[in-house]
Design goal:
GO molecular function: diphthine-ammonia ligase activity
Number of helices: 20
Radius of gyration: 29 Å
Pfam family, one: Ribonuc_L-PSP
Largest sheet: 8 strands, mixed
Strand content: 25-35%
Distance between the termini: 48 Å
CATH topology of the largest domain: Rossmann fold
CATH class of the largest domain: Alpha Beta
CATH architecture of the largest domain: 3-Layer(aba) Sandwich
Protein name: Diphthine--ammonia ligase
EC number: 6.3.1.14
Catalytic activity: diphthine-[translation elongation factor 2] + NH4(+) + ATP = diphthamide-[translation elongation factor 2] + AMP + diphosphate + H(+)
């Protein structure tokens, strides 16, 4: 990609340019924001480093790249004080809008630019605002230093190979003295910075505001280096413990490199551009349905089917269509999303309350069509508390007699969710460019987006096969978990692993073993207690995004204070009388079921019915559907029994997916009736507690090619995935 680099003069903005080039991108322009008054060294800004801005004009000549500059007219106080933890929204007269004007002009002058680089390492505040501007301009944010270990980064920067010669131009931390350390070379300061980290927990790269730098030379400066001849030290705060001071450059010159013509090493007007203009006006309105969508929705509404769980504060809504041979994916998805939007409104919530979205489509080759339709409904503007996390899977929908789109949303009726949404391409984890996030935490449950085996900085799939993809997907998952101070090795409750049918059987046979080995190896390198033994569910599907072979969807528990624990609950297990179902408890019943109960708050069940189990349940009958009727009753019986024994009820259900193999040859409509009948029996036994006045079923039927507890054996015909949450 052709990149415009945001440069402050600091080491980070220079080093990220080197990383861009390392990953095959091209720096074609520089962009810098500076104070209105040239004599001012530092602004009271949350966003921009301005110390040393007098020298930045020379970067254009040193790199032989055009430099676009804009003077900062906006304030940092308007928006920041109230919204430091939230995604930025366009705010007139905010200093962030100066960046928008600056980059808008760069894009206008150089239309081939598609990306913006920034040196963000740990500041969510800065990263989110750069990403917001990039989103508005249709540019990709590149932040290759994001979440990298600061000690390693510092060592990389001062490595002679990279040639970064930077000096300290501001100090503001214990152990740093303006009179001693300003103007000192970063490489010279490294041992002292490492010592301060050890003594006081300081950030060695200055991410806590401990210090700022000015780069005078690096490998990017092909024509010249900057020589600082004279400077003044200005003391801003004489604090005896952590004095604050800045370096004010007064005299400097350029020193040519190689064959550069020394006579040309002056400021060239042709390389430096001052960007004027006012900030943009606020957007006028929210999304309206595109022309024609309303008609399509009205025409297809008769084919809409819904399900909803009965829990009041956290629940799932599913929407799918009956067979739509004449409609395309776009029309079907518009209908489904419109109906879900209507259902959300009916229950007093909106898209901002959605935690997670399962997006199922009939043909992954139309992923771009699905995405274009999706972003018409779910936008960052509609989700001020963070956009939902998402998993996108191709399912045999048409084969199962359904339409071409199927959506399930997990909803909370509060605003307590915590969302991690990194749109920048980095070396940390795969970016989520658009209105879907890496993970959402709500009430102790971390719902992670489906993870592919993508190499984060290149966003390319590992090409060594399914096992390599799995390892990379797990590495990505661990990086995301660490952002929430947990680990997939100790906190995972459930791993759902989608396997493409294109995966070779020989590789599929290895996946579970390699998965467990990855977790065991990671555990051995960590000292953790209270390790959760996760449930594994493997699902065979026709295809995955980017033609991936594997997609991992982890669900984690992020521990909170609990007044109850598993040991206490063992003495409180419900007894219950389930003889009315006609089943005598047998050992093989429990062999079908995986159950995890966490702190008395979460109960996860995965019930697997194979052809062998189906035979055990069968009784001689002239009814062709009798085997499935017996299976449905058995599933409901065993799930009900397990919930009761663990002091949970159906009212605690947040989601119930019934994955069924298309090899059954039964229509979704018919299978739905069979399971609804089983739940009606349960409802009669429980005196109406299950229905709770709901008209829709509480379960969703999900057609798959196969499923199982191991990747080597995906021969389940029915798999129930039940998630319950007490609150």
């Amino acid at each position: 990609m052709k990149v415009v680099a945001l440069v402050s003069g600091g080491k980070d903005s220079c080093y990220v340019m080197m990383k861009c080039i390392q990953y095959g991108h091209e720096i074609v322009a520089l962009a810098n924001l500076l104070p209105v008054d040239d004599s001012v060294d530092e602004l009271d800004s949350y966003m921009y480093q301005t110390v040393g801005h007098q020298i930045i004009v020379s970067y254009a000549e040193c790199m032989n790249v055009p430099l676009f500059r804009r003077r900062i007219r906006g304030s940092s106080r308007i928006y920041a004080c109230r919204h430091q933890k939230l995604s930025y929204q366009m705010t007139p007269d905010d200093e962030v809008e100066d960046m928008f004007v600056l980059l808008s002009e760069v894009k206008k002058q150089i239309p081939s630019i598609t990306a913006v680089s920034s040196g963000a390492i740990a500041s969510d505040y800065q990263r989110l605002r750069v990403e917001s501007i990039c989103s508005r301009l249709g540019l990709v944010s590149l932040a290759f230093l994001w979440k990298q270990d600061q000690t390693s980064l510092l060592q990389e920067m001062i490595n002679p190979t990279n040639g970064i010669k930077a000096i300290l131009v501001k100090v503001a931390a214990i152990g740093l003295d303006p009179s001693k350390h300003l103007g000192k070379d970063l490489a010279f300061m490294e041992p002292h910075l490492l010592k301060l980290k050890e003594l006081y927990g300081s950030n060695v790269c200055g991410e806590g505001g401990e210090y700022e730098t000015l780069t005078l030379d690096c490998s990017l400066f092909t024509r010249a280096r900057i020589v600082l001849d004279e400077f003044e030290v200005k003391l801003h705060s004489p604090d005896s413990i952590a004095p604050v001071g800045v370096l004010h450059p007064t005299v400097f010159h350029l020193e040519k490199k190689g064959n550069a013509d020394s006579s040309s090493l002056e400021e060239e007007p042709g390389l430096v551009f001052e960007v004027q203009g006012d900030g943009p006006n606020p957007p006028e309105s929210t999304r309206q349905l595109d022309n024609g969508i309303a008609d399509v929705v009205q025409h297809t509404r008769t084919r809409v089917n819904l399900s909803k769980t009965g829990k009041d504060n956290t629940f799932s809504i599913c929407c799918w269509l009956e067979d739509s041979s004449t409609a395309g994916l776009k029309e079907d998805l518009e209908t489904v999303l419109t109906e879900i939007e209507s259902q959300l409104s009916k229950h007093g919530v909106s898209w901002q309350n959605v935690l997670y979205i399962h997006l199922y489509i009939s043909d992954m080759s139309e992923f771009s069509v699905a995405n274009e339709t999706y972003v018409k409904f779910i936008t960052q503007e509609k989700c001020p508390f963070g956009v939902p996390s998402r998993s996108t899977i191709e399912l045999p929908l048409v084969q199962a007699g359904l339409g071409k789109a199927y959506v399930e949303v997990l909803v909370a009726n509060d605003h307590s969710k915590r969302v991690l949404h990194v749109q920048s391409i980095s070396s940390w984890a795969p970016s989520c460019i658009g209105p879907y996030s890496q993970a959402t935490l709500h009430k102790g449950v971390l719902h992670m987006a489906g993870q592919l085996g993508l190499d984060p900085p290149t966003m390319s799939l590992r090409n060594e096969g399914a096992v390599a993809e799995l390892n990379q997907a797990l590495t990505n998952s661990e990086a995301i978990a660490e952002a929430f101070r947990c680990s997939i090795t100790s906190s995972a409750i459930l791993f759902v692993v989608f396997c493409s049918e294109r995966t070779q059987q020989s590789e599929r046979n290895q996946l579970h073993e390699k998965f467990v080995s990855f977790l065991d190896l990671a555990k051995s390198s960590q000292r953790v207690s209270n390790v959760i033994d996760p449930i594994f569910l493997y699902i065979l599907v026709p295809d995955l995004p980017k033609s991936a072979l594997v997609e991992v969807k982890p669900v984690l528990y992020v521990e909170e204070d609990s007044e109850d624990d598993d040991e206490t609950r063992k003495d409180q297990l419900g007894e219950g009388d389930f003889s009315c179902w006609g089943y005598k408890p047998e050992k093989w019943h429990q062999d079908c079921l995986q159950t995890r109960v966490i702190d008395g708050k979460i109960c996860v069940n995965v019930l697997s019915i194979s052809a062998e189990v189906m035979k055990k349940l069968d009784e001689p009958s002239g009814d062709e559907e009798q085997p499935l009727k017996r299976v449905s009753r058995f599933c409901v019986y065993l799930l009900d029994k397990t919930l009761s024994e663990n002091l949970f009820s159906w009212q605690d259900t947040t989601s119930l997916r019934i994955h069924f193999s298309t090899s059954l040859g039964v229509s979704v409509e018919r299978l739905s009736v069979i399971f609804e009948t089983a739940f009606e029996v349960l409802n009669e036994m429980s005196l109406g507690v299950i229905s709770n006045g709901l008209k829709e079923p509480i379960f969703s039927l999900v057609p798959v090619l196969g499923a199982g507890n191991s990747s080597a054996s995906l021969d389940n015909i029915i798999t129930c995935e039940l998630f319950s949450l007490r609150s």
